[in-house]
């Protein structure tokens, strides 16, 4: 390694002092300089590259698009007429309609899609119908399981010809690299069975996904892509150049949507990594139409801030430096106010607060543990902890760095069955 570093240094020095010092002593032959095609040869090479990429895309579309599902939802919404006092009744029922996408994951006909596609405005669409390629007939579908925090749902059609069920292969999203080609399938603006192409722009973008407490999503890892994704693409698959599903399209970044109210692609779309969905599938299939939640350690926040909407949990960094010094707290972390018996945190020996104190703007539970890191990653709020837990499954373990009264310790917490109830 030293000789290589010296060689690099000599080249840099040579370039700085004048290339003529080394020019005659370092012969460069054809073996070192690859000859690039030019003129007509260059045009032919570029055309061949484009043709090969087009052929790959067309093969993937022809083979796997039949596994795409077009989803329609209807929900009966009752509204109160403000002029009801002028006439009898006053309550009116309206039908809200929505469209989305999904794809088959097995021969039983299970369809993976986004939670927000089938959830409707509240808790679930009144009616769900699906249609597949090769059939003009729409059939009804029912919810098998919904996971709001993951923005994922599993539905199953009724009366669909088994020959029309074409499962898509699930890939490995952990192996993705920025720059890889991807193909998005779905129904943008209701234009069913549409295809767009792009690349992976980032493999570790952290954004809020799903619907947690208070309707807020949980910050988690997402795949960013520039493949055109628009309203209606939600729930559709994102495929790699081998035809494997590596993500589920879920969100777009749309500056125009802030003014028009209708989101449109700005070249920045996000997909849920397929490995998250793969880990969740068994739980969705066993949910019997119910909800599936993210794993819980069983702790309650020990630091609450008062807002117009009530008290909300916050991280230690929200405190002033003077307050942290007075209460002998670290600069950041999650204060454990209470531990729920029978859940992983209690089994691992985490300790809740021993005394509560009100202060202007909030409340704090002192004397308990403070979680400062999970698996070596610093945390400062419950959402940070949940972001680490979101793709874990039963039997997995996490290591917490825990602070208490100026001393730190490592605590290993195993996610048993109780963590997923």
TrEMBL record:
Keyword Protease: yes
InterPro entries: Chloro_Bact_Ser_Proteases, PDZ, PDZ_sf, Peptidase_S1_PA, Peptidase_S1_PA_chymotrypsin, Peptidase_S1C
Record family assignment: Belongs to the peptidase S1C family.
GO molecular function: serine-type endopeptidase activity
The keyword Hydrolase appears for this protein: yes
Domain PDZ: 304-406
One Pfam assignment: Trypsin_2
Matches recorded under PROSITE patterns: PDZ (PS50106)
Name this protein carries in UniProt: PDZ domain-containing protein
Biological processes annotated in GO: proteolysis
Keywords: Hydrolase, Protease
């Amino acid at each position: 390694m030293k000789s290589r570093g010296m060689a690099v240094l000599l080249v840099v020095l040579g370039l700085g002092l004048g290339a003529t010092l080394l020019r005659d002593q370092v012969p460069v032959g054809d073996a070192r300089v690859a000859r690039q095609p030019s003129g007509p040869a260059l045009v032919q090479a570029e055309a061949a590259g484009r043709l090969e990429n087009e052929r790959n895309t067309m093969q993937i579309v022809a083979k796997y698009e039949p596994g795409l599902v077009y989803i329609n939802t209807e929900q009966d919404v009752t509204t109160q007429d403000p002029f009801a006092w002028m006439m009898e009744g006053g309550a009116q029922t309206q039908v809200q309609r929505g469209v989305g996408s999904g794809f088959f994951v097995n021969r039983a006909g299970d369809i993976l899609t986004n939670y927000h596609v089938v959830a409707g405005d509240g808790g679930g669409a009144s009616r769900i119908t699906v249609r597949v390629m090769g059939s003009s007939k729409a059939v009804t579908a029912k919810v098998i399981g919904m996971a709001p925090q993951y923005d994922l749902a599993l539905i199953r059609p009724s009366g669909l010809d088994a020959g029309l069920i074409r499962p898509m292969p699930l890939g490995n999203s952990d192996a993705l690299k920025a720059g890889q080609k991807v193909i998005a399938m779905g129904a943008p603006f209701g234009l069913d069975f549409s295809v767009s192409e792009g690349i992976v722009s980032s493999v570790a973008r952290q954004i809020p996904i799903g619907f947690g407490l208070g309707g807020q999503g949980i910050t988690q890892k997402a795949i960013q892509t520039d493949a055109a994704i628009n309203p209606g693409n939600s729930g559709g698959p994102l495929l790699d150049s081998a035809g494997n599903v590596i993500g589920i399209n879920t969100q777009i970044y749309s500056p125009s949507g802030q003014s028009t109210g209708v989101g449109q692609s700005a070249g920045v779309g996000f997909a849920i990594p397929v490995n998250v969905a793969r880990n969740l599938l068994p739980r969705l299939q066993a949910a019997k139409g119910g909800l599936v939640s993210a794993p819980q350690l069983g702790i309650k926040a020990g630091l609450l801030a008062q807002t117009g909407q009530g008290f909300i949990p916050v991280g230690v960094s929200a405190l002033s430096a003077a307050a942290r010094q007075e209460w002998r707290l670290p600069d950041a972390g999650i204060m454990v106010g209470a531990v729920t018996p029978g859940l992983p945190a209690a089994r691992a020996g985490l300790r809740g607060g021993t005394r509560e104190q009100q202060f202007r703007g909030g409340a704090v539970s002192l004397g308990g543990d403070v979680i400062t890191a999970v698996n070596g990653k610093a945390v400062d709020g419950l959402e940070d902890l949940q972001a680490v837990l979101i793709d874990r499954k039963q039997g997995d373990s996490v290591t917490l760095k825990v602070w208490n009264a100026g001393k730190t310790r490592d605590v290993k917490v195993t996610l048993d069955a109780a963590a997923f109830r």
